[in-house]
Task: structure prediction
Amino acid sequence: MKKINAARLEVMKNLFISITEEMGVVLKKASYSPNIKERGDASCAIFDWKGRLIAQAEHIPVHLGSMPLAIQAIKEYYSEEDLEEGDQIILNDPYIGGSHLPDITLIKPVILKGELVGYVVNKAHHADIGGMSPGSMPGLSKEIFQEGLRIPPSKLITRGRENREIFRIIEFNTRTPEERLGDLRAQIAANNLGERRFISLIKKYGIEIYKEFVDEIIAYSERRMRKAISKIPNGVYEGEDYMDDDGNEDKPIRILCKVKVKEDTMEIDFTGTSPEREANINAPYSVTLSSVYYAVRCVTDPNIPPNHGCYLPLSIKIPKGTFLNPSKNLAVSAGNVETAQRIVDTLFIAFSKALPDKVPAQSCGSMNNILIGGRYGEKTFTYYETIGGGQGARPKMDGQDGIHDHMTNTANTPIEVIETTYPLLIERYELIPDTCGLGKNRGGLGIRRAIKVLINGATLSIQSERRKFKPIGFYGGKDGARGRNYLIRDGEIIELPSKVTINLRKGDVVVIETPGGGGYGFVSERDKSMIKKDIVEGKVSKKKYEEVLGSF
Result:
């Protein structure tokens, strides 16, 4: 006889989600690096004894979608008999359940009375994990060995005790060892908290009700996803978009997808996508999968409880040897942050043909990664940040200005934190007028961030996109502005490509200008009061509107 009714299902669902959210709070508060503590570049989730996702916090989509493959990986490396109470497994290998090397996943098996009942998991972006340049995201890497320390599934904690050898390997392979070990221990603490809450919840309801809950919530999400897919017209919808280049060769890189909707199922096929590259834009299989999961949830029903059941109606084909499913040992650091965004853009083009009133215009399309590292005094530092841009206009409202969108969900690092932590000075941090795509609803504005370097010998790396191809507007909306990277040295402006690693001098000013979002619908249909508001607030110039509308 079933013991789970609708009310209990909802209560237990929210209790499990609350555990992941509390894990995230602990991780951020206990971490050492501004990247995790201030920006929140970390994610938490819970899986059942079979490795099925049952709950996640609303953290970073590109992290969360790759976690199921991390669980699969440790199940291949460790049998249930190998896992003991108190163990925690570390991994960051993008080809074994990871995303890119700076993202370290930590998995703790939850064992109750000798029985494996599930896993608590977190993933955090570490500001440096070694490699050829500070920040472990070089602009011009060709192979993964240039991007940092590669960690296969290994026991970081054994029966509650730290594995000192692995800690020392990490400590000796990063430019910022104190920060790295502090962040790792914050991850350990988050999982310990998650385990305690998990076990407490099972004890409250009993193991039988817990297992029944897991099966029911997964089945519930699957039913809702199938119902949402069935509302999309049957057919085959194609999307095509391009990366600016791969950083080493100045040629656009194609992503092609076909989405086939049939009744309550969906097939997504990336056949025709460009081959893998000797460059860092390769997206590991786990990252491409994450991007698909995110895009599908956006266009179906984002309120479906995110768990294993959401993805059962999907069939996903990512041909091996394309840059969305590359061979081992190729560089991948930008695949996680830049290619993931373009995969979503491409899928949205396809979905817009089936759901014209639901899909927004293209957003910024880049995480605009900037990394500056070096030595000052006895200290070594690595500053890492992703900078937001314009959100694409939505069918019923404008896009938001200067935010992160789609595959990332981080905050900015406050100027005060940057200037007290690093030898850097923020000269400008502002929205850029006229970068939005105009339309019935306009896109959001891009951001300008100008950073002055106060020491000699620092190294700059940038990984960015949409410096050549604009974020496109939909249904008559205008395109958003391209982004731009440049260096001001002795009063001279030096243009920088979308992906680069260079040495800096004291007094150099690095400027990142991020793309704006595309517009939605014809500009002539925009409410006149909204046009006036844009001009009064300084977001759009009168001249820009006059170029499109003439007098108004």
Notes: The first helix runs from residue 6 to 30. Residues 312 and 416 are 46 Å apart (CA to CA).
